[in-house]
Amino acid sequence: MAALPAQLDRHHGMSRLVVFAIGASHAAAHVLVAHLTAHGIPCELQTGADFTAAQARPGTTYLGISQSGRSVEIVRALSQVPPESRMSVVNRVPSPVAELTPDPLTLGGVADSRVSTVGYTATALALAMLAEHLTGGADLARWQAFGELVATVIERRREAAAVIAADLLRAGHIDVVSSRAGLAAAEGAALLFREGAVVPAASYDTRSYLHGFMDSAKPGSVHLIVDRGDEALLARQLADHGATVHVIGTEPIPYAGTGPLHQILLPAMTDAELSIAASVICQMIVQEACAATGRRPEDSVFTRIDTKVETAA
């Protein structure tokens, strides 16, 4: 990651961005999309699975995100657009995705787990820095200090993660909800809970959840909310209904009710920092859940077929 700032300097002046990403990379991309759209840069997130050359538009940059650099959908989608309009963020070089783009942003080949824990957080951080770079400049000093903040989160929030893991295993399911950059944590966590702890999980954006997805909540159901300032109403309604609610946020949500509302506070973090730190807590939740059940997160359930491009690299 130390080489990333110099790589960022090669990319400037995007008027419109389409992002191709799938799996954990799709989740991480919400950090980038939220920041760019908030700064007036149109940014669209797709899996790339249904993209065709007929959809390519002039004046658009197409960013492919793939930790392995071998995701079938990303290779196919990037191949449909002019070479000069392609960008990529990859962990592995050489790789097919990197070879399709003139100046790939590379994470340096960081070692990762089967469930993409390190790769996910590295990708999210790189995308947050890229978003800042494209809208005025990345705060490199703050991101360097963020590593220490994450270490503190890991040290001090293990017990809270164990409580959420116990609730998750008791209920056998969990909904994860947030908005904007927090969607990266929500979507990434749902995937992680499914792949790592093998527990049904789903992610939702806050407004959609309020519009009806929350109606399956009941006493004993478990809900994890990443609060970026707009989730207080949802948290209180769920707790009043008797659902078990865990909130990760930067400010406390005032609550005078008696429902099970638990809060993890990570003060003074930006939206992107909160999303990444919340993702780290979710990784600890999976560790605790697996320790309780004896499952190893590295153990596969299905053999992945037709998800990676074959390569000799």
Explain what this protein looks like in three dimensions:
The strands form 2 sheets. This protein has a 5-stranded parallel β-sheet, sandwiched between helices. A 5-stranded parallel β-sheet has the order 7-6-8-9-10, sandwiched between helices. Helix 6 (140-156) packs parallel to helix 11. The protein has helices at 4-8, 24-38, 72-78, 96-100, 117-134, 140-156, 158-171, 182-196, 206-210, 232-240, 271-293; strands spanning 17-20, 43-46, 61-66, 86-90, 105-106, 174-178, 201-205, 222-227, 244-249, 261-265. It is an alpha/beta fold and 313 residues long. It is globular and about 60 Å long.
List keywords for this structure.
5-stranded parallel β-sheet; single chain; Rossmann fold; 313 residues; 2 domains; 42% helix; alpha/beta; 11 helices
Lay out the secondary structure:
Elements: H1 4-8, E1 17-20, H2 24-38, E2 43-46, E3 61-66, H3 72-78, E4 86-90, H4 96-100, E5 105-106, H5 117-134, H6 140-156, H7 158-171, E6 174-178, H8 182-196, E7 201-205, H9 206-210, E8 222-227, H10 232-240, E9 244-249, E10 261-265, H11 271-293
